[in-house]
């Protein structure tokens, strides 16, 4: 909705139509200083997200009962080879809308089993950065030599 500066009246904007034709000033009015755009939030879906050092990062549905961190990691295919589970964080919103960050050691199986995941939680499992290749590798040099020989032997 759009609320013009100095009024309490609002007009409804259709974001999907605006995306299709952003130059149409009838459906996409020019904003003026002091105007307010109001976006109504929908209901929080019954999901949690898990990203970073897992095999299948993404958004997952919450079961009707409880869900432990171990089960959430399992749903995401387990840790990947670059995961640093000891530095796992869970971003959780409290009912008053404030964000809290919990840091847990997900490498500890007891912590995985006792940490419960809530609807809307965002779990992040950090990953190690890949190591830079060394400047000189005899095996890589051999591979280049064999490739060049194969290309130019004709």
Structure description:
The chain is an alpha+beta fold and 154 residues long. Helices cover 22% and strands 21% of the residues. The chain contains four helices and eight strands; from the N terminus they run E-E-H-E-E-E-H-E-E-H-E-H. The strands form two sheets. It has a five-stranded mixed β-sheet, with helices on one face. The longest helix is centred in the last third of the chain and has 15 residues, at 138-152. The termini are far apart.
Which residue ranges are poorly predicted, with pLDDT under 50 across at least 5 consecutive positions? Answer: none
The overall strand count is 8
Radius of gyration: 26 Å
Spatial order of strands in the largest sheet:
5-4-8-6-7
* Helix run count: 4
N-to-C SSE string, H for helix and E for strand: EEHEEEHEEHEH
**In terms of structural class, how would the helical and strand content be classed?**
alpha+beta
Give the overall pLDDT as a whole number: 85
Share of helix among residues? Answer: 10-25%
Q: What fraction strand?
A: 15-25%
Biggest β-sheet strands, sense, barrel: 5 strands, mixed
**Overall body shape:** flat
Distance between the termini: 71 Å
């Amino acid at each position: 909705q759009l609320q013009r500066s100095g009024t309490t009246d609002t007009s409804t904007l259709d974001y999907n139509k605006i995306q299709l034709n952003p130059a149409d000033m009838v459906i996409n009015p020019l904003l003026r200083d002091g105007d307010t755009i109001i976006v109504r939030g929908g209901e929080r879906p019954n999901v949690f997200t898990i990203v970073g050092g897992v095999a299948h990062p993404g958004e997952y549905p919450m079961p009707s009962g409880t869900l432990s961190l171990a089960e959430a990691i399992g749903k995401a295919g387990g840790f990947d080879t670059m995961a640093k589970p000891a530095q796992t964080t869970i971003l959780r919103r409290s009912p008053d809308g404030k964000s809290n960050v919990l840091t847990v050691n997900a490498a500890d199986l007891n912590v995985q089993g006792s940490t419960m995941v809530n609807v809307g939680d965002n779990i992040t499992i950090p990953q190690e950065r890949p190591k830079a290749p060394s400047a000189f590798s005899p095996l890589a040099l051999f591979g280049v030599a064999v490739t060049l020989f194969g290309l130019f032997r004709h």
